[in-house]
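Q: I'm building a small set of examples for a reading group on sequence design. Run inverse folding on the following structure and report the sequence directly after it, with nothing in between.
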């Protein structure tokens, strides 16, 4: 099946092809080397970051997903490598040395989403989120923000990336009778 990594790498490879066809950067061709963090595994992210830095001496790495990016950041600091986060959204990705984020983190997104829910009259919510650093950290920020406004979080349900059936979680959410359901996550693609 097609994965997020496939989509992301195809864009980088196409850009490199176009840049090189136009003469490169200051006459130098660029090369893209791709590593696989196995759908967000921190250990695989560390292994791939080490390989990219030690074998290819890459000066910059574009990462994705929160857990492998957080794991790779220590190597980036140790080896003076620029790490660009192109997909992770854990709030823990902010203010890390050598790490540049290209997107909003989950805490900022959560506050915006919850602000709209409150404006629409919601006071009681349920949350469903991915059981990884991005989902957990974002849910923690959302819970703190929502309760700080004096509202209730009636239930929280987590799911794993491989999940294809959410019946049990949805039954618990329905039974809670929330004003709104807030989701923080994504799923495996096919």
């Amino acid at each position: 099946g097609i994965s997020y990594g496939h989509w992301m790498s195809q864009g980088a490879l196409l850009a490199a092809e176009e840049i090189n066809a136009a003469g490169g950067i200051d006459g130098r061709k660029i090369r893209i080397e791709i590593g696989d963090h196995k759908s967000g595994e921190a250990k695989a992210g560390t292994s791939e970051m080490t390989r990219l830095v030690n074998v290819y001496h890459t000066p910059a790495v574009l990462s994705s997903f929160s857990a492998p990016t957080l794991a790779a950041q220590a190597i980036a600091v140790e080896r003076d490598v620029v790490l660009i986060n192109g997909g992770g959204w854990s709030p823990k990705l902010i203010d890390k040395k050598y790490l540049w984020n290209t997107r909003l983190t989950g805490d900022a997104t959560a506050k915006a989403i919850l602000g709209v829910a409150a404006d629409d009259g919601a006071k009681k919510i349920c949350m469903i989120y991915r059981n990884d650093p991005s989902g957990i950290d974002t849910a923690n920020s959302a819970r703190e923000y929502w309760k700080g406004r004096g509202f209730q979080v009636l239930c929280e349900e987590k799911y794993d990336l491989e999940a294809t059936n959410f019946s049990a979680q949805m039954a618990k959410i329905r039974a809670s009778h929330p004003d709104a359901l807030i989701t923080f996550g994504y799923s495996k693609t096919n």
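The two ends are 5 Å apart (CA to CA).
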